[in-house]
Amino acid sequence: MHNVNQYYPTSGRVILHVDMNAFYCSVHEAEDPDQFRGKATAVAGSVELRKGIIVTCSYVARRLGISTGMQVQKALRICPSLIVIKPDFHLYRKYSNAFMQIAYSYTPLLEAVSIDECYLDITGSRQFGTPMEIAETIQRRIMEELGLPCSIGIAPNKLLAKMASDLKKPNGISVLRLRDVPKILWDKPCNEMFGIGGKTAEKLRKLGIYSIGQLAAADEKMLVENFGVMGSWLKRAGNGIDHGIVNPEREQSKSIGHTTTLPRDVIGLAEVRPILLNLSDQVARRLRKQGLVASGVQLTIRTPDMKTITRSRQLEAPSESGEDIYKSVCDLYVRHWNGEKPVRLLGVTLQGLIAKEDSAIQLDLFDYERQPKKESLTKAMDMLRNKFGENAVLTAGMLSDTHSARLRNHKERGTSLQKDNLLSVESDKD
Length: 430
Hints:
Monomer. Keywords: Cytoplasm, DNA damage, DNA repair, DNA replication, DNA-binding, DNA-directed DNA polymerase, Magnesium, Metal-binding, Mutator protein, Nucleotidyltransferase, Transferase. By secondary structure, this protein is α+β, with helices and mostly antiparallel strands. The chain folds into four domains: 4-20 and 91-179, Reverse transcriptase/Diguanylate cyclase domain (Alpha-Beta Plaits); 23-89, MutS, DNA mismatch repair protein, domain I, CATH 3.40.1170; 184-239, DNA polymerase, domain 1 (Orthogonal Bundle), CATH 1.10.150.20; 255-408, Dna Ligase, domain 1 (2-Layer Sandwich), CATH 3.30.1490. The protein has helices spanning 23-31, 33-36, 59-63, 72-78, 89-104, 131-146, 158-165, 181-184, 198-206, 212-217, 220-227, 230-238, 269-289, 322-336, 365-388, 401-413, and strands at 15-20, 41-43, 56-57, 83-85, 110-114, 117-121, 150-155, 173-175, 256-266, 292-302, 308-319, 343-351, 354-355, 424-427. The longest helix is centred in the last third of the chain and has 24 residues, at 365-388. The radius of gyration is 25 Å and the shape is globular. The N and C termini lie far apart (53 Å).
C-alpha cells in the first residue's frame, strides 16, 4: 500500500490565497449596483459588432450556460438579456490595488500573482487572530469596503492554498491541510491540479495516470523520464507538497521602452515608418517574452537641437502585437509632429502593462480563427531572433527603399545588415 507519510514534511507556515470572484464583472457591479447587481453580465470587447469573445462573466450568467471564451453572439443566443460590458482596465487596476491594500494590512508578505489574486504568508500574523479569523476578516472587509466577493484558501503552502480557494466559489473560505489531500484531492482528475494543463494531463492519461491520487503514487523515475525535471514536481504536487515561498518582491515592469539615436536626421513619415516599425517590433517581442500585454503606448521624439517631446495614447484593447503598437505610434507621429521638421531620436514605450492571462485581449470572429496561426508565426519569429539576433527576421516594412538597397548590397558582399549600424540603441529600460 502506498505510504503517504513520507511525503508529508512538517510545516509551520500558514498561507492564504485570495482569489477575487468574477473580478471584472464584480467591479462593474460594485461601481453601478443598480444596473448590474444580480444580472447576467459579461465583459467583452467589440460589443457593438457582437463579434467579441467573453473574457469573464458573472455567476448568474454562468448558471445560465455562459462561459469564458464563448463568442458573444452565441452567449446572446443562450441569454438574450445578457449585459455585455466593454473592459475598463483603469477601473480594474484601481480595485485591484484597493483589495491588495486591505490584504497587506495583515502581513507584509504579500505576493501579487495577477490583477485579481494574491498569496499571503500569515505565519507571523497571530496578533490578528487564528488563520480562519484573519481570512474571514479580509473577506468581510473586501466586501464591505469595496463591494467585491472573494474566495480564500488556507493551507501550509502556496499550491494547496490555491487549490483550496477553488473549492468554494463564490465567496467561500476553505482549509486544505496535508492530511486532507488524499480525501479531498486524490479522486480528482489530474487536470484539476493547479499547474497541470491539458497537454500534460493527456500525456499522463497515456501513461495510465488519470487521477491526482494515481499521480501521487506514480514512480518518480518514470515521471522524470517522461517529463524531465517537471516529473519530480508532478510527484510532489500529487502529494500536496510545495516548497515555494511567498515572495513580496515579485513585481512586473511598469513600462517597456526602446529608443534609438539616428546616424542622420530623418524627415517625413516615409523615413520614420521603418524605424518606428523596428522599434515597435522590438518592444513587442520583449513584452511577449515577459508574458505581458500593453494598454497604452508613448512616442518620444528628439530634434537635432536636443528638444524632446512625448505623446501617448491608449490602445483600443490591451495587446502584445507589434502591428497594433506600430499603427498607434504612427498615428501619434502624424497627429503631433510636423513632418517637415527633422528628427534625430525616436522612441517607443509601452505602458499600462498587465499579465496576458489577466487581460481581455479582444478578437473579432475573423481574428479568432486566425489567431492560433498568427501566434505560431510570432513565436517562430521570436525564437529565430532570440537565437540569431534582431536582424535574423526582417519584415519588408522595416526597410526603407535605401535600406532595402543596402541590404541587397550586403547580401551580395556576404555581410549582415547589423554591421551597417543603421540604428544604434541608446537606452533599453523596463
